[in-house]
DNA-binding response regulator
Amino acid sequence: MAVSDAESTNEWPGAEGTARAEARADALTGAQADARTGTRSDPRTGAQGSVLVVDDDPTVSEVVAGYLERAGFSVRLAADGPTGLRAAEEHRPDLLVLDLMLPGMDGLEVCRRLRAGENGGRPVPVIMLTARGDEDDRILGLEVGADDYVTKPFSPRELVLRVRSVLRRARAAAPAGAPQGGPEGGPRLAVAGLVLDPAARRVHKEGRELALTLREFDLLAYFLRHPGQVCDRERLMREVWGWDFGDLSTVTVHVRRLRGKIEDDPGNPQLIRTVWGAGYRFEPAPDTGAEHAFRTEDGHA
């Protein structure tokens, strides 16, 4: 059972405690619906959106589904990689919760194939479930296109908060052809060979478009809007992720991945500097000063 100890002792007293039984009962609501596809409820009826949960542990799937459904989401379940990929391609959920270790095809390959098949269309946000301490797996997950990750054991309530946060940011993205400025506001920003367009949610470096995940884009946008400021990990988690709690290594991994995409030499970063003991500082132009290098695309400082 891959839930947190705190969840087991506080919310689920005993192996079959009352709260756990309620969560399981909620999760089993509509379980008779189309067992072949794993549909938990009609995807069109979820007021908060539709979520596909791909996990081979039926208890985890049932409990997670129960929490998501009580939060207003419609849920589909899949128990292996090939089934999950097929369900994601056929039903296009609003978000995918994807376990890393799956039979038939692991979560990394599912995510990789899903992204490859999107052909520039709006990507389905992916939250990857990984084992605690497996930083290499978390990095690989981000590299193949996951937007976030949750480490096992986890709290189902925290997962619901993560789902809401990722969906909120994904929905803030403007559709193709939207006016400049978009729902997130602000002009396009150009600095050190980077051009960030908030409306289109695209970033180019020296004319080449960068493949950034949802969180990487938001993190870069935050750095560009706060040049020269020292931002600790707690601040970044609060302002970029919208969380007041969570695993701060999430920020560390995302900064590392972002450096790998925007820095000329990620091993010796010049744009996102580490301020030891304090956090990170974005330096638009270490040699000439931020006031000369940071500008909107029309050339105004």
Remarks:
- The two ends are 54 Å apart (CA to CA).
